[in-house]
Protein backbone atom coordinates (compact mmCIF):
# COMPACT_ATOMS: atom_id res chain seq x y z
CA UNK A 1 0.00 0.00 0.00
CA UNK A 2 2.83 2.42 0.91
CA UNK A 3 4.62 1.58 -2.35
CA UNK A 4 1.46 2.32 -4.33
CA UNK A 5 0.98 5.62 -2.51
CA UNK A 6 4.57 6.65 -3.28
CA UNK A 7 4.12 5.77 -6.95
CA UNK A 8 0.97 7.90 -7.17
CA UNK A 9 2.73 10.87 -5.54
CA UNK A 10 5.67 10.57 -7.95
CA UNK A 11 3.28 10.43 -10.88
CA UNK A 12 1.51 13.57 -9.64
CA UNK A 13 4.74 15.51 -9.32
CA UNK A 14 5.80 14.44 -12.80
CA UNK A 15 2.53 15.70 -14.19
CA UNK A 16 3.16 19.06 -12.58
CA UNK A 17 6.75 19.34 -13.81
CA UNK A 18 6.11 18.37 -17.43
CA UNK A 19 4.08 21.48 -18.35
CA UNK A 20 6.70 23.70 -16.68
CA UNK A 21 9.54 22.06 -18.62
CA UNK A 22 7.53 22.25 -21.81
CA UNK A 23 6.89 25.94 -21.27
CA UNK A 24 10.60 26.58 -20.73
CA UNK A 25 11.41 24.63 -23.90
CA UNK A 26 8.87 26.65 -25.88
CA UNK A 27 10.30 29.93 -24.64
CA UNK A 28 13.84 28.84 -25.49
CA UNK A 29 12.78 27.55 -28.86
CA UNK A 30 10.92 30.73 -29.70
CA UNK A 31 13.96 32.84 -28.76
CA UNK A 32 16.20 30.80 -31.05
CA UNK A 33 13.63 30.75 -33.82
CA UNK A 34 13.33 34.54 -33.74
CA UNK A 35 16.85 34.80 -35.09
CA UNK A 36 16.20 32.84 -38.27
CA UNK A 37 14.33 35.58 -40.10
CA UNK A 38 15.58 35.10 -43.64
CA UNK A 39 15.08 32.38 -46.23
CA UNK A 40 17.58 31.05 -48.79
CA UNK A 41 16.61 28.44 -51.44
CA UNK A 42 19.08 25.55 -51.69
CA UNK A 43 19.48 22.92 -54.36
CA UNK A 44 19.12 19.29 -53.40
CA UNK A 45 22.39 17.66 -52.40
CA UNK A 46 24.88 16.96 -49.64
CA UNK A 47 26.12 19.79 -47.41
CA UNK A 48 28.53 20.14 -44.46
CA UNK A 49 26.80 21.16 -41.22
CA UNK A 50 28.17 21.73 -37.69
CA UNK A 51 25.48 22.22 -34.99
CA UNK A 52 26.88 24.85 -32.62
CA UNK A 53 26.23 28.31 -31.25
CA UNK A 54 26.29 31.52 -33.22
CA UNK A 55 29.63 32.66 -31.83
CA UNK A 56 31.29 29.25 -31.85
CA UNK A 57 32.58 28.70 -35.34
CA UNK A 58 34.85 25.64 -35.04
CA UNK A 59 38.41 26.34 -33.92
CA UNK A 60 40.94 23.82 -32.60
CA UNK A 61 42.47 23.95 -29.11
CA UNK A 62 46.01 25.25 -29.07
CA UNK A 63 47.31 21.90 -27.83
CA UNK A 64 45.93 19.98 -30.81
CA UNK A 65 47.29 21.87 -33.78
CA UNK A 66 50.04 24.37 -34.48
CA UNK A 67 48.83 27.86 -35.38
CA UNK A 68 50.70 27.95 -38.66
CA UNK A 69 48.96 24.71 -39.73
CA UNK A 70 45.42 25.91 -38.98
CA UNK A 71 43.08 26.11 -41.96
CA UNK A 72 39.53 27.13 -40.91
CA UNK A 73 37.83 25.49 -43.89
CA UNK A 74 39.74 22.22 -43.52
CA UNK A 75 39.10 22.15 -39.77
CA UNK A 76 35.39 22.77 -40.40
CA UNK A 77 35.34 19.72 -42.67
CA UNK A 78 36.84 17.63 -39.87
CA UNK A 79 34.25 18.76 -37.32
CA UNK A 80 31.17 19.02 -39.55
CA UNK A 81 28.83 16.20 -40.41
CA UNK A 82 27.37 15.62 -43.88
CA UNK A 83 23.63 16.24 -44.28
CA UNK A 84 21.41 15.58 -47.29
CA UNK A 85 18.92 18.32 -48.05
CA UNK A 86 16.05 18.42 -50.47
CA UNK A 87 15.50 21.29 -52.86
CA UNK A 88 13.84 23.61 -50.42
CA UNK A 89 14.50 26.96 -48.73
CA UNK A 90 16.46 27.01 -45.45
CA UNK A 91 16.02 29.67 -42.80
CA UNK A 92 19.12 31.53 -41.59
CA UNK A 93 19.98 34.47 -39.34
CA UNK A 94 23.70 35.19 -39.92
CA UNK A 95 26.52 34.34 -42.29
CA UNK A 96 30.31 34.07 -42.24
CA UNK A 97 33.12 34.42 -44.75
CA UNK A 98 36.60 32.95 -44.82
CA UNK A 99 39.08 33.71 -47.56
CA UNK A 100 37.73 30.84 -49.69
CA UNK A 101 34.36 29.70 -48.35
CA UNK A 102 31.09 31.10 -47.05
CA UNK A 103 28.69 29.79 -44.41
CA UNK A 104 25.13 30.34 -43.21
CA UNK A 105 24.04 30.13 -39.61
CA UNK A 106 20.90 28.15 -40.43
CA UNK A 107 18.21 25.98 -38.94
CA UNK A 108 18.60 22.42 -40.28
CA UNK A 109 16.23 19.67 -39.09
CA UNK A 110 15.40 21.73 -36.03
CA UNK A 111 19.06 22.28 -35.08
CA UNK A 112 20.95 25.57 -35.28
CA UNK A 113 24.48 25.57 -36.63
CA UNK A 114 26.88 26.58 -39.36
CA UNK A 115 26.07 25.31 -42.85
CA UNK A 116 28.46 25.65 -45.78
CA UNK A 117 26.21 27.14 -48.42
CA UNK A 118 26.08 30.17 -50.73
CA UNK A 119 25.34 33.48 -49.01
CA UNK A 120 22.73 35.67 -50.78
CA UNK A 121 24.97 38.76 -50.89
CA UNK A 122 26.33 40.53 -54.00
CA UNK A 123 29.87 39.55 -54.93
CA UNK A 124 31.12 43.11 -54.56
CA UNK A 125 29.86 43.21 -50.98
CA UNK A 126 31.40 39.81 -50.25
CA UNK A 127 34.77 41.15 -51.40
CA UNK A 128 34.39 44.16 -49.10
CA UNK A 129 33.50 41.90 -46.18
CA UNK A 130 36.60 39.80 -46.83
CA UNK A 131 38.81 42.89 -46.62
CA UNK A 132 37.89 43.03 -42.95
CA UNK A 133 39.46 39.63 -42.34
CA UNK A 134 42.90 41.23 -42.33
CA UNK A 135 41.84 43.14 -39.21
CA UNK A 136 41.29 39.92 -37.25
CA UNK A 137 43.21 39.74 -33.97
CA UNK A 138 46.27 37.55 -34.05
CA UNK A 139 45.36 35.91 -30.74
CA UNK A 140 41.92 34.52 -30.01
CA UNK A 141 40.50 35.58 -26.64
CA UNK A 142 38.82 32.20 -26.26
CA UNK A 143 41.43 29.66 -27.38
CA UNK A 144 44.55 31.87 -27.08
CA UNK A 145 45.42 30.47 -30.49
CA UNK A 146 47.73 32.68 -32.52
CA UNK A 147 46.05 33.13 -35.89
CA UNK A 148 47.57 34.74 -38.92
CA UNK A 149 45.52 37.30 -40.84
CA UNK A 150 45.11 34.84 -43.76
CA UNK A 151 43.40 32.32 -41.46
CA UNK A 152 40.67 34.55 -40.05
CA UNK A 153 37.04 35.00 -40.84
CA UNK A 154 34.39 37.68 -40.56
CA UNK A 155 30.87 37.11 -39.23
CA UNK A 156 27.83 39.21 -40.20
CA UNK A 157 24.45 39.27 -38.46
CA UNK A 158 21.74 41.39 -40.16
CA UNK A 159 19.24 43.37 -38.12
CA UNK A 160 15.53 42.97 -38.82
CA UNK A 161 16.05 46.07 -40.92
CA UNK A 162 18.38 44.39 -43.39
CA UNK A 163 20.03 47.70 -44.29
CA UNK A 164 22.01 47.38 -41.03
CA UNK A 165 24.36 44.52 -40.15
CA UNK A 166 26.46 43.67 -37.08
CA UNK A 167 29.97 42.68 -38.16
CA UNK A 168 32.26 40.67 -35.88
CA UNK A 169 35.81 40.43 -37.14
CA UNK A 170 37.42 39.94 -33.75
CA UNK A 171 36.45 39.41 -30.14
CA UNK A 172 36.84 43.10 -29.30
CA UNK A 173 36.25 44.69 -32.69
CA UNK A 174 32.53 44.75 -33.47
CA UNK A 175 30.82 47.33 -35.64
CA UNK A 176 27.42 48.17 -37.14
CA UNK A 177 27.41 49.00 -40.85
CA UNK A 178 24.72 50.82 -42.84
CA UNK A 179 24.86 49.00 -46.17
CA UNK A 180 23.34 51.63 -48.52
CA UNK A 181 25.84 54.30 -47.45
CA UNK A 182 28.66 52.00 -46.25
CA UNK A 183 28.77 54.11 -43.08
CA UNK A 184 29.75 52.69 -39.67
CA UNK A 185 27.09 53.78 -37.15
CA UNK A 186 28.50 52.02 -34.06
CA UNK A 187 31.82 50.47 -33.10
CA UNK A 188 32.97 48.71 -29.92
CA UNK A 189 36.33 50.47 -29.93
CA UNK A 190 37.57 48.56 -26.88
CA UNK A 191 34.88 50.18 -24.70
CA UNK A 192 32.18 47.55 -25.20
CA UNK A 193 32.16 43.79 -25.60
CA UNK A 194 29.75 40.91 -26.18
CA UNK A 195 27.62 42.78 -28.73
CA UNK A 196 24.47 40.97 -29.86
CA UNK A 197 21.17 41.88 -31.48
CA UNK A 198 17.91 41.80 -29.55
CA UNK A 199 15.65 40.63 -32.37
CA UNK A 200 12.50 41.54 -30.44
CA UNK A 201 13.45 45.26 -30.33
CA UNK A 202 15.92 45.25 -33.25
CA UNK A 203 18.47 47.01 -31.03
CA UNK A 204 22.08 46.29 -30.12
CA UNK A 205 22.90 45.13 -26.58
CA UNK A 206 26.39 44.80 -25.13
CA UNK A 207 28.45 44.93 -21.95
CA UNK A 208 30.90 47.60 -20.93
CA UNK A 209 34.59 46.78 -20.92
CA UNK A 210 35.35 43.97 -18.43
CA UNK A 211 31.61 43.35 -18.03
CA UNK A 212 31.07 46.84 -16.67
CA UNK A 213 27.32 47.40 -16.95
CA UNK A 214 24.79 46.65 -19.67
CA UNK A 215 24.15 49.05 -22.57
CA UNK A 216 21.58 49.27 -25.36
CA UNK A 217 22.06 51.10 -28.67
CA UNK A 218 19.83 51.68 -31.67
CA UNK A 219 21.12 50.43 -35.01
CA UNK A 220 21.87 54.08 -35.80
CA UNK A 221 24.36 54.05 -32.89
CA UNK A 222 22.38 56.11 -30.36
CA UNK A 223 22.50 55.08 -26.70
CA UNK A 224 19.10 54.05 -25.34
CA UNK A 225 18.60 55.39 -21.79
CA UNK A 226 17.46 52.96 -19.15
CA UNK A 227 13.80 53.16 -18.30
CA UNK A 228 13.14 53.41 -14.56
CA UNK A 229 11.28 50.45 -13.17
CA UNK A 230 9.19 50.31 -9.99
CA UNK A 231 11.96 48.27 -8.35
CA UNK A 232 14.56 50.90 -9.24
CA UNK A 233 12.58 53.93 -8.07
CA UNK A 234 14.10 55.81 -5.16
CA UNK A 235 12.57 55.69 -1.75
CA UNK A 236 11.53 58.85 0.04
CA UNK A 237 14.72 58.79 2.12
CA UNK A 238 16.87 58.44 -1.01
CA UNK A 239 15.12 61.34 -2.70
CA UNK A 240 15.61 63.38 0.47
CA UNK A 241 19.32 62.61 0.48
CA UNK A 242 19.65 63.43 -3.24
CA UNK A 243 18.02 66.81 -2.74
CA UNK A 244 20.17 67.44 0.32
CA UNK A 245 23.36 66.89 -1.70
CA UNK A 246 22.26 69.03 -4.66
CA UNK A 247 23.10 72.48 -3.29
CA UNK A 248 23.90 74.27 -0.01
CA UNK A 249 20.46 75.91 -0.02
CA UNK A 250 18.74 72.56 -0.46
CA UNK A 251 21.02 71.05 2.15
CA UNK A 252 20.03 73.69 4.70
CA UNK A 253 16.37 73.21 3.85
CA UNK A 254 16.58 69.43 4.20
CA UNK A 255 18.53 69.65 7.45
CA UNK A 256 15.85 71.95 8.81
CA UNK A 257 13.19 69.44 7.76
CA UNK A 258 15.17 66.63 9.37
CA UNK A 259 15.32 68.60 12.58
CA UNK A 260 11.56 68.92 12.45
CA UNK A 261 11.09 65.23 11.73
CA UNK A 262 13.75 63.84 14.07
CA UNK A 263 13.76 65.30 17.55
CA UNK A 264 17.35 66.11 18.68
CA UNK A 265 18.68 64.87 21.99
CA UNK A 266 19.30 67.10 24.99
CA UNK A 267 23.08 66.87 24.43
CA UNK A 268 22.64 68.07 20.82
CA UNK A 269 20.50 70.98 21.98
CA UNK A 270 23.10 71.91 24.59
CA UNK A 271 25.87 71.72 21.98
CA UNK A 272 23.96 74.08 19.68
CA UNK A 273 23.33 76.50 22.53
CA UNK A 274 26.98 76.49 23.63
CA UNK A 275 28.26 76.96 20.09
CA UNK A 276 25.94 79.89 19.40
CA UNK A 277 26.48 81.40 22.87
CA UNK A 278 22.78 81.51 23.82
CA UNK A 279 22.90 81.94 27.60
CA UNK A 280 19.13 81.76 28.07
CA UNK A 281 18.94 78.49 26.15
CA UNK A 282 21.79 76.98 28.19
CA UNK A 283 20.19 78.13 31.45
CA UNK A 284 16.84 76.66 30.39
CA UNK A 285 18.38 73.26 29.62
CA UNK A 286 20.19 73.22 32.96
CA UNK A 287 16.99 74.04 34.85
CA UNK A 288 15.19 71.23 32.99
CA UNK A 289 17.67 68.67 34.29
CA UNK A 290 20.66 68.61 31.93
CA UNK A 291 23.80 67.73 33.90
CA UNK A 292 26.11 70.70 34.19
CA UNK A 293 29.18 68.43 33.90
CA UNK A 294 27.74 66.06 31.27
CA UNK A 295 29.67 65.41 28.06
CA UNK A 296 28.73 67.42 24.96
CA UNK A 297 30.02 66.69 21.45
CA UNK A 298 30.96 69.80 19.41
CA UNK A 299 33.17 69.87 16.32
CA UNK A 300 34.89 66.57 16.99
CA UNK A 301 35.52 67.18 20.71
CA UNK A 302 33.57 65.61 23.53
CA UNK A 303 34.02 67.81 26.60
CA UNK A 304 32.01 69.24 29.43
CA UNK A 305 29.95 72.43 28.90
CA UNK A 306 32.45 74.49 30.91
CA UNK A 307 35.41 73.33 28.79
CA UNK A 308 33.49 74.14 25.60
CA UNK A 309 32.64 77.60 26.92
CA UNK A 310 36.34 78.19 27.63
CA UNK A 311 37.26 77.02 24.11
CA UNK A 312 34.82 79.59 22.68
CA UNK A 313 36.20 82.16 25.21
CA UNK A 314 32.66 83.13 26.20
CA UNK A 315 33.27 84.65 29.65
CA UNK A 316 29.55 85.31 30.49
CA UNK A 317 28.78 81.69 29.62
CA UNK A 318 31.66 80.52 31.82
CA UNK A 319 30.30 82.60 34.69
CA UNK A 320 26.80 81.15 34.20
CA UNK A 321 28.03 77.55 34.22
CA UNK A 322 30.16 78.10 37.31
CA UNK A 323 27.18 79.71 39.01
CA UNK A 324 25.04 76.66 38.15
CA UNK A 325 27.53 74.34 39.82
CA UNK A 326 30.00 73.38 37.09
CA UNK A 327 33.23 72.01 38.54
CA UNK A 328 36.39 73.98 37.73
CA UNK A 329 38.56 70.92 38.40
CA UNK A 330 36.57 67.92 37.13
CA UNK A 331 38.09 66.12 34.15
CA UNK A 332 35.68 64.75 31.58
CA UNK A 333 36.06 60.98 31.32
CA UNK A 334 35.89 61.14 27.52
CA UNK A 335 39.03 63.32 27.34
CA UNK A 336 41.88 60.85 26.89
CA UNK A 337 44.54 63.46 27.76
CA UNK A 338 42.82 64.22 31.10
CA UNK A 339 42.79 67.99 30.61
CA UNK A 340 41.07 69.92 33.40
CA UNK A 341 38.94 72.89 32.29
CA UNK A 342 41.72 75.39 33.10
CA UNK A 343 43.79 74.04 30.17
CA UNK A 344 41.25 75.54 27.74
CA UNK A 345 41.29 79.10 29.13
CA UNK A 346 42.15 81.81 26.59
CA UNK A 347 41.65 85.11 28.41
CA UNK A 348 42.69 86.53 31.79
CA UNK A 349 39.03 87.11 32.77
CA UNK A 350 38.12 83.45 32.21
CA UNK A 351 41.25 82.32 34.06
CA UNK A 352 40.44 84.54 37.05
CA UNK A 353 36.91 83.07 37.19
CA UNK A 354 38.32 79.55 37.31
CA UNK A 355 40.77 80.40 40.09
CA UNK A 356 37.92 82.01 42.04
CA UNK A 357 35.99 78.71 41.85
CA UNK A 358 38.75 76.38 42.98
CA UNK A 359 40.86 75.73 39.87
CA UNK A 360 44.53 74.94 40.46
CA UNK A 361 47.75 74.43 38.55
CA UNK A 362 48.71 71.06 40.01
CA UNK A 363 50.16 68.13 38.06
CA UNK A 364 47.81 66.58 35.49
CA UNK A 365 47.14 62.91 36.19
CA UNK A 366 48.14 61.77 32.72
CA UNK A 367 51.42 60.29 31.48
CA UNK A 368 52.16 60.67 27.79
CA UNK A 369 54.54 58.73 25.58
CA UNK A 370 57.53 60.85 26.60
CA UNK A 371 56.93 60.30 30.34
CA UNK A 372 56.76 64.05 30.91
CA UNK A 373 55.30 65.64 34.01
CA UNK A 374 52.54 67.80 32.57
CA UNK A 375 51.07 70.88 34.21
CA UNK A 376 48.33 73.24 32.96
CA UNK A 377 51.06 75.84 32.33
CA UNK A 378 52.15 73.74 29.34
CA UNK A 379 48.96 74.93 27.58
CA UNK A 380 48.80 78.42 29.11
CA UNK A 381 52.42 79.53 29.47
CA UNK A 382 52.89 80.64 25.87
CA UNK A 383 50.04 83.18 26.08
CA UNK A 384 51.65 86.45 27.20
CA UNK A 385 48.39 87.86 28.58
CA UNK A 386 47.92 84.85 30.87
CA UNK A 387 51.40 84.73 32.43
CA UNK A 388 50.82 87.49 35.02
CA UNK A 389 47.69 85.69 36.25
CA UNK A 390 49.57 82.39 36.45
CA UNK A 391 52.45 83.92 38.40
CA UNK A 392 50.03 85.58 40.80
CA UNK A 393 48.05 82.44 41.61
CA UNK A 394 50.76 79.77 41.45
CA UNK A 395 52.10 78.67 44.85
CA UNK A 396 55.86 78.89 45.48
CA UNK A 397 56.09 75.12 45.87
CA UNK A 398 55.35 74.61 42.18
CA UNK A 399 58.39 76.67 41.16
CA UNK A 400 60.58 73.88 42.49
CA UNK A 401 59.29 71.74 39.61
CA UNK A 402 61.10 72.57 36.36
CA UNK A 403 58.28 71.03 34.27
CA UNK A 404 55.83 73.51 35.79
CA UNK A 405 57.49 76.71 34.60
CA UNK A 406 59.61 75.48 31.66
CA UNK A 407 57.10 76.62 29.02
CA UNK A 408 57.06 80.16 30.40
CA UNK A 409 60.83 80.19 30.90
CA UNK A 410 61.61 79.12 27.34
CA UNK A 411 59.16 81.65 25.95
CA UNK A 412 60.76 84.46 27.99
CA UNK A 413 64.23 83.39 26.79
CA UNK A 414 63.17 83.35 23.15
CA UNK A 415 61.63 86.79 23.58
CA UNK A 416 64.67 88.09 25.47
CA UNK A 417 62.45 89.28 28.35
CA UNK A 418 64.96 89.38 31.20
CA UNK A 419 62.48 91.15 33.53
CA UNK A 420 60.02 88.24 33.29
CA UNK A 421 62.87 85.75 33.77
CA UNK A 422 63.82 87.62 36.94
CA UNK A 423 60.23 87.21 38.22
CA UNK A 424 60.53 83.44 37.80
CA UNK A 425 63.90 83.43 39.55
CA UNK A 426 62.42 85.42 42.43
CA UNK A 427 59.76 82.73 42.86
CA UNK A 428 62.40 80.01 43.13
CA UNK A 429 62.84 78.86 39.52
CA UNK A 430 66.18 77.40 38.44
CA UNK A 431 68.01 77.87 35.14
CA UNK A 432 69.54 74.39 35.31
CA UNK A 433 67.37 71.73 33.72
CA UNK A 434 67.38 68.64 35.95
CA UNK A 435 67.97 65.14 34.69
CA UNK A 436 64.79 63.07 34.34
CA UNK A 437 65.45 59.33 34.44
CA UNK A 438 63.33 57.47 31.87
CA UNK A 439 62.37 60.58 29.94
CA UNK A 440 62.01 59.93 26.21
CA UNK A 441 63.19 63.03 24.39
CA UNK A 442 60.65 64.36 21.91
CA UNK A 443 61.74 66.07 18.73
CA UNK A 444 61.32 69.64 19.99
CA UNK A 445 64.69 71.31 20.61
CA UNK A 446 63.33 73.01 23.73
CA UNK A 447 62.72 69.61 25.31
CA UNK A 448 66.30 68.44 24.74
CA UNK A 449 68.55 71.42 25.41
CA UNK A 450 68.92 73.36 28.68
CA UNK A 451 67.55 76.92 28.91
CA UNK A 452 70.87 78.65 28.18
CA UNK A 453 71.09 77.08 24.74
CA UNK A 454 67.73 78.61 23.75
CA UNK A 455 69.07 82.15 24.01
CA UNK A 456 69.39 83.91 20.67
CA UNK A 457 70.91 87.15 21.94
CA UNK A 458 74.22 87.86 23.64
CA UNK A 459 72.55 90.00 26.32
CA UNK A 460 70.11 87.22 27.21
CA UNK A 461 72.87 84.60 27.32
CA UNK A 462 75.06 86.75 29.61
CA UNK A 463 72.04 87.45 31.88
CA UNK A 464 71.36 83.71 32.21
CA UNK A 465 75.02 82.93 32.91
CA UNK A 466 75.16 85.59 35.64
CA UNK A 467 72.07 84.08 37.31
CA UNK A 468 73.13 80.48 37.57
CA UNK A 469 72.91 78.99 34.08
CA UNK A 470 75.67 76.53 33.26
CA UNK A 471 77.69 76.60 30.08
CA UNK A 472 78.64 72.97 30.46
CA UNK A 473 75.88 70.41 30.11
CA UNK A 474 76.43 67.50 32.50
CA UNK A 475 72.86 66.20 32.53
CA UNK A 476 71.76 66.17 28.89
CA UNK A 477 72.89 65.49 25.37
CA UNK A 478 76.52 66.46 24.74
CA UNK A 479 76.80 70.10 23.66
CA UNK A 480 79.84 72.13 22.66
CA UNK A 481 80.25 75.19 24.95
CA UNK A 482 82.97 76.60 22.69
CA UNK A 483 80.68 76.41 19.65
CA UNK A 484 77.90 78.09 21.64
CA UNK A 485 80.17 80.99 22.65
CA UNK A 486 81.54 81.51 19.14
CA UNK A 487 78.18 81.34 17.35
CA UNK A 488 77.28 84.84 18.60
CA UNK A 489 80.48 86.19 16.94
CA UNK A 490 80.78 88.62 19.85
CA UNK A 491 84.25 89.47 21.09
CA UNK A 492 83.00 90.80 24.49
CA UNK A 493 81.11 87.55 25.07
CA UNK A 494 84.25 85.55 24.15
CA UNK A 495 86.34 87.59 26.62
CA UNK A 496 83.69 87.04 29.33
CA UNK A 497 83.59 83.29 28.68
CA UNK A 498 87.38 82.99 28.81
CA UNK A 499 87.85 85.03 31.99
CA UNK A 500 84.75 84.11 34.02
CA UNK A 501 83.77 80.68 32.70
CA UNK A 502 87.16 79.22 31.83
CA UNK A 503 86.42 78.49 28.17
CA UNK A 504 89.54 77.41 26.26
CA UNK A 505 89.63 77.54 22.47
CA UNK A 506 90.60 74.56 20.35
CA UNK A 507 93.78 75.27 18.37
CA UNK A 508 95.11 75.24 15.75
CA UNK A 509 92.21 73.59 13.87
CA UNK A 510 88.93 75.02 15.16
CA UNK A 511 85.87 73.67 13.23
CA UNK A 512 83.71 76.63 14.27
CA UNK A 513 86.12 79.07 12.61
CA UNK A 514 85.12 77.75 9.17
CA UNK A 515 81.54 78.99 9.50
CA UNK A 516 82.28 82.44 10.95
CA UNK A 517 81.63 85.56 8.88
CA UNK A 518 82.79 88.39 11.16
CA UNK A 519 86.34 89.45 10.26
CA UNK A 520 86.96 91.08 13.69
CA UNK A 521 86.10 87.80 15.41
CA UNK A 522 88.29 85.89 12.95
CA UNK A 523 91.30 88.15 13.67
CA UNK A 524 90.79 87.69 17.41
CA UNK A 525 90.76 83.90 17.01
CA UNK A 526 93.85 83.92 14.79
CA UNK A 527 95.66 85.97 17.47
CA UNK A 528 94.72 83.20 19.94
CA UNK A 529 96.34 80.53 17.73
CA UNK A 530 93.44 79.38 15.55
CA UNK A 531 94.46 78.50 11.97
CA UNK A 532 92.87 80.40 9.10
CA UNK A 533 92.69 77.07 7.24
CA UNK A 534 90.60 75.32 9.92
CA UNK A 535 88.18 72.77 8.44
CA UNK A 536 84.81 71.60 9.70
CA UNK A 537 83.43 68.06 9.71
CA UNK A 538 82.76 68.29 5.93
CA UNK A 539 86.31 69.36 5.14
CA UNK A 540 85.31 72.90 4.17
CA UNK A 541 87.33 75.97 5.11
CA UNK A 542 86.10 79.51 5.65
CA UNK A 543 87.49 80.37 2.19
CA UNK A 544 85.45 77.61 0.48
CA UNK A 545 82.29 78.75 2.27
CA UNK A 546 82.89 82.40 1.37
CA UNK A 547 83.49 81.58 -2.30
CA UNK A 548 81.20 78.65 -3.13
CA UNK A 549 78.32 79.01 -0.63
CA UNK A 550 77.94 82.65 0.43
CA UNK A 551 79.58 84.47 -2.51
CA UNK A 552 80.90 86.87 0.15
CA UNK A 553 83.54 88.78 -1.82
CA UNK A 554 84.82 91.04 1.04
CA UNK A 555 85.29 88.02 3.31
CA UNK A 556 86.95 86.11 0.48
CA UNK A 557 89.44 88.95 -0.08
CA UNK A 558 90.11 89.19 3.68
CA UNK A 559 90.92 85.48 3.91
CA UNK A 560 93.16 85.53 0.84
CA UNK A 561 94.97 88.58 2.18
CA UNK A 562 95.72 86.72 5.41
CA UNK A 563 97.07 83.62 3.68
CA UNK A 564 94.10 81.26 3.24
CA UNK A 565 95.02 78.17 1.21
CA UNK A 566 93.19 77.82 -2.15
CA UNK A 567 94.28 74.21 -2.68
CA UNK A 568 92.45 72.56 0.24
CA UNK A 569 89.94 69.95 -0.98
CA UNK A 570 86.84 68.98 1.02
CA UNK A 571 85.46 65.47 1.49
CA UNK A 572 83.32 65.73 -1.66
CA UNK A 573 86.26 66.67 -3.85
CA UNK A 574 85.35 70.35 -3.96
CA UNK A 575 87.63 73.30 -3.32
CA UNK A 576 87.97 77.05 -3.72
CA UNK A 577 88.78 76.59 -7.41
CA UNK A 578 86.51 73.64 -8.32
CA UNK A 579 83.24 74.22 -6.48
CA UNK A 580 81.28 72.70 -3.64
CA UNK A 581 82.10 69.20 -4.90
CA UNK A 582 84.04 67.59 -7.69
CA UNK A 583 81.98 67.40 -10.93
CA UNK A 584 81.02 63.89 -11.97
CA UNK A 585 83.03 62.65 -14.94
CA UNK A 586 81.85 60.31 -17.67
TrEMBL record:
InterPro entries: Ankyrin_rpt (IPR002110), Ankyrin_rpt-contain_sf (IPR036770). Residues 1-23 form the signal peptide. Keywords: ANK repeat, Repeat, Signal. This is Ankyrin repeat domain-containing protein. The lineage of its organism: Bacteria, Pseudomonadati, Bacteroidota, Cytophagia, Cytophagales.
Amino acid sequence: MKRLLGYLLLLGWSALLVPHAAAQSRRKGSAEASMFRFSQPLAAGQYSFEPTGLFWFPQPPETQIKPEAFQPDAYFDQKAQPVKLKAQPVRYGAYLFTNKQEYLYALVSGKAGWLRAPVPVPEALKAQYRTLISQQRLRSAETRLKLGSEYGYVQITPFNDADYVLIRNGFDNDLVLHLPTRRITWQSGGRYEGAEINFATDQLECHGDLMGGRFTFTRQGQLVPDKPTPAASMSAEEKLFARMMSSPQAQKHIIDSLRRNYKPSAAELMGQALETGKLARVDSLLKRGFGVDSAVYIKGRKLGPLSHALVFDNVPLVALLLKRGASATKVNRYDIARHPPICFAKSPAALELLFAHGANLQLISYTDYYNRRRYPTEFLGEKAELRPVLLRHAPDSLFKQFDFYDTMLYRYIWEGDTVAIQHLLDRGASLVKPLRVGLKYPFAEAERKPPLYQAGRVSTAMFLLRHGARLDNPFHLPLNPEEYVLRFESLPFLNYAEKRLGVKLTTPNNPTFAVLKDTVMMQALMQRGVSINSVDSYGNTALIYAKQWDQNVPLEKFLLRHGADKAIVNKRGGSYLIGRERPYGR
